[in-house]
Amino acid sequence: MTDYASKNREVWHNAAKNYDVKSWQKQLIKQITEDIQAHAQWLGLSPLQPNDASTSVRLLDYACGPGTISIALQPFITSSQGIDIAPGMVEEYNSRISLMNPAPDFHAQVGDLCSSEGVSEDLQAKDLYAFDVAAIGMGFHHFEHLQLSIDRLIERLKSGGVLFIVDLLEKKGDSAIGEHKVDHGHGDDFAKEAARTVPHKHGFTREGMEAMFDATGLQDFDFVVLERPAVMGEGEGAFSKTIFIAKGKKA
């Protein structure tokens, strides 16, 4: 039986510094950033007003990687707390944020909110609760315990807070992750290792996502399919997948 948490921790820790070095990776991140920003109002977010110290919009960026979602939402949030299972990704997140001028109130730490064995004490701090928004950006298909992960993130939201998930749409006839030789910047061996970190290789349906959101008691479920396909890889190994955003509100 695959220990997906340990595998993800190992693989993405080692891959952190080369996460977006390829042109297709840069394009994919740019595309996701643009699409999230274009749907900010749909997510209940508005651009921050200059010098408005009275506004507070706190984001929990789970499986944060190097900070793609946090940085995409910077015009709409006042702070972001990233959490990732891979120490290398957390280091990369914090390094990238430190280079921004001025540096926003964003910080990431190592952690696993989705373990079936419970949540570690360092993730029980008061400031790791009552977020306005929680997000999982292109990480959900790496999670072994899907319903548990949604439950745990909902616990971190304040009443009226929004959870949204950006991930791959399951479509009939689409190839599964791992069926293509995608060069992530590390060669074919890494591509094989990366595929082994994914328990849900086809992505998710609207119906499946809605059922999980409903089971947690989230309200106002909505689901958008993004128009532009996500192209992964280059040359003969390239393939495309459709991306969706699912959202729900905590009662």
Question: What layout of secondary structure does this protein have?
Answer:
Blueprint: H1 4-15, H2 23-38, E1 58-62, H3 68-72, E2 79-84, H4 87-98, E3 105-110, E4 131-137, H5 146-155, E5 157-168, H6 188-195, H7 206-215, E6 219-225, E7 230-232, E8 239-241, E9 243-249
Parallel strand pairs: 1-2, 1-4, 2-3, 4-5
Antiparallel strand pairs: 5-9, 6-9, 7-8
What would your notes on this structure say?
- By secondary structure, the protein is of the alpha/beta class.
- 29% of the residues lie in helices and 22% in strands.
- The protein has seven helices and nine strands.
- It has helices at 4-15, 23-38, 68-72, 87-98, 146-155, 188-195, 206-215; strands spanning 58-62, 79-84, 105-110, 131-137, 157-168, 219-225, 230-232, 239-241, 243-249.
- The strands form two sheets. It has a seven-stranded mixed β-sheet with strand order 3-2-1-4-5-9-6, with helices on both faces. It has a two-stranded antiparallel sheet with strand order 7-8.
- Helix 3 links the parallel strand 1 (58-62) and strand 2.
- The longest helix has 16 residues, at 23-38.
- It is globular and about 50 Å long.
- Residues 180-188 have low confidence and may be disordered.
Secondary-structure element sequence? HHEHEHEEHEHHEEEE
Low-confidence residue ranges? 180-188
Structural class: alpha/beta
Strand order of the largest sheet: 3-2-1-4-5-9-6
The total strand number stands at 9
The shape, in one word, is: globular
Assembly state = single chain
Mean pLDDT: 89
How much strand? Answer: 15-25%
Radius of gyration: 17 Å
Number of helices: 7
Helix content: 25-40%
End-to-end separation in angstroms reads 37 Å
Largest sheet: 7 strands, mixed
